[in-house]
């Protein structure tokens, strides 16, 4: 027995899918431009760099995506990212036997930061922008103080650093960790009750609250899981650098937000695609690598990056949805046919 999809179902699928199209078009354009003006970007070394640094951005962007889906925003990313890296060094004590203790400590402390964010924002209903910025500053200060207790040559355990150098299918291991995390989120959102409920609550918190769903717990969970992802990215980056500094997380303030926006997420909450967010992160990493290959000054790189974020806002998923819905409404609107007026019986023959 064959089943056919109704026109309304097909239109709904098209509307939802259309919000995520720009990032894939942007990737194609980037590949074309890079092949013409900066072919070294597409060399093995160039692509390896994109795969590695794109992974750190993708993991942090997945965390930011969760927060934005819950109707918030997180500016504590740099501090939490740095926390994960520095705690990895401090608790690892350059001893392979302490690798897992250090990783658990880094992720656990980051979860505590996320819990603080979530309780203040979800429980006390304070402004997410201000709260996360303030919490991020507090975390940065604590991490700086903690880092001063280290020996000058302190580094991550050599076993973790060596693990980073091993490649699978010619690609570094952190890339595959990012792939697994992205796949887990895709599976959760599509096939689990928790994932689907998370999207529903984020899309319409008022209706969810009326229905008896715990909206505040949704927000708290988003901040906790997001912070854990930032710490994971920080641990992986620390393993790459071996001896990370306290400014390691600074570049991750706007990058994750840009990836989420370019990835088509709804800034009002609810709708987002882990795969599109992942693709957007690698688009930004590829763009950065291309500008480096072209030798653009750092100042100009910032300008280009800012323009890309603005462009992402202009073609954001919300604007695309509104445009598509407007077109569909125009097509569905019935056409009025003017009927000729009846001739009055009192009118003479002329």
Structure description:
It is a single chain. By secondary structure, the protein is mainly alpha-helical. The chain has one domain (about 20-320). Helix content is about 70%, strand content about 0%. Strands 1-2 form a two-stranded antiparallel sheet. Helix 3 packs across helix 12, helix 3 (about 45-70) crosses helix 13 (about 275-295) and helix 4 (about 75-90) runs parallel beside helix 6. The longest helix has 27 residues, at about 215-240. The protein is globular, with a radius of gyration of 25 Å. The N and C termini lie far apart (about 65 Å). The model has no long low-confidence stretch (mean pLDDT about 85).
Summarize the entry for a quick read.
By secondary structure, the chain is mostly helical.
Write the layout of secondary structure elements.
Elements: H1 7-18, H2 21-37, H3 44-69, H4 77-92, H5 99-123, H6 128-147, H7 158-165, E1 167-168, E2 171-172, H8 173-191, H9 193-203, H10 205-210, H11 215-241, H12 255-262, H13 274-294, H14 298-314, H15 317-332
Helix pairs in contact: 2-13, 3-8, 3-11, 3-12, 3-13, 4-5, 4-6, 4-11, 5-6, 5-11, 7-11, 8-9, 12-13
